[in-house]
Amino acid sequence: MGQALNKLQYRHIKDATSEIVTYIDDRRKGVIRSLSTRWKSFNRQCMGGIEPNTIYTIAGISGSGKSSFANSLETDLFDLNPNENFVVLSFNFEMLASRQVGRKLSYKMKKTTSELYHGNVDSEALNDDEFKTLVTNAEKIKQYPIYYVDCPGTVEEIRATIIDFYSKPEIRGK
Fold first, then answer.
1. Helix (H, G, I), strand (E, B) or coil at 16
2. Beta bridge partners of 58
3. What is the pLDDT of residue 66?
4. What gap in Å lies between CA 129 and CA 79, rounded to an integer?
5. What is the largest CA-CA distance in the chain?
6. pLDDT tens by residue, 35-85
7. DSSP secondary structure letter of residue 143
């Protein structure tokens, strides 16, 4: 008894041509817009910024700044595109979501994460006013429609997670 073969789908070039013409027209008319980032050269290379409904993979050697880049990017998308309606699903396989938020607070506070996490060991700890500012920034960050996946998974688990996430009306309606 042989294994059932799953065939890949194919389509004629006329369908792909119609699809790209519609896409170009929608971009031209502003129906499809990219989300701006703080990096002008990045925006230029990516057709104006990050395009919604697109999966981006950030790769590099350990310690090269991938998490920092992604963290800045996802926060900037909301800060620089306040009139756009979108959500972010972020897979964090190297750093827990709470630590990602710590980096966001670090950026907003213009302090290193070390300074934020220092504790009450000595005079380097946050004072009461700085902590109040941190809490205010945290309340703003809580409002971002960002969802994190902290646990690594198989390709199929990641795929199923994306499909499940996208299918939720309460998320898609944001």
1. helix
2. none
3. 84
4. 24
5. 73
6. 999 999 989 988 889 988 788 888 888 888 888 888 888 888 999 999 988
7. T
Q: Which two tokens stand for residue 163?
A: 């499909």
Q: Which fold has domain 55-172?
A: Rossmann fold (3.40.50)
The candidate with the shortest Cα–Cα distance to 150, out of 98, 107, 92, 94, is 92
Dihedral sign (CA 60, 63, 69, 70)? positive
Phi–psi pair at 170, nearest 5 degrees: -70, -25
Tokens of 139: 């309340």
How does DSSP classify residue 148? E
DSSP 37-94: -S-HHHHHHTTTSBPTT-------STTSSHHHHHHHHHHHHHHH-TT----EEEE-SS
The rounded distance, in Å, linking the Cα atoms of 138 and 116 is 13
- Residue ranges per structural domain of the chain: 11-53, 55-172
Q: What is the pLDDT along the chain (174 residues), one digit of tens a residue?
A: 566 777 888 899 999 999 999 998 999 898 888 999 999 998 998 888 998 878 888 888 888 888 888 888 888 899 999 998 888 898 887 778 888 899 889 888 888 888 888 776 666 678 889 889 999 999 999 989 999 998 888 999 999 999 999 888 877 655
Cα(97)–Cα(70) distance, rounded to whole angstroms? 12
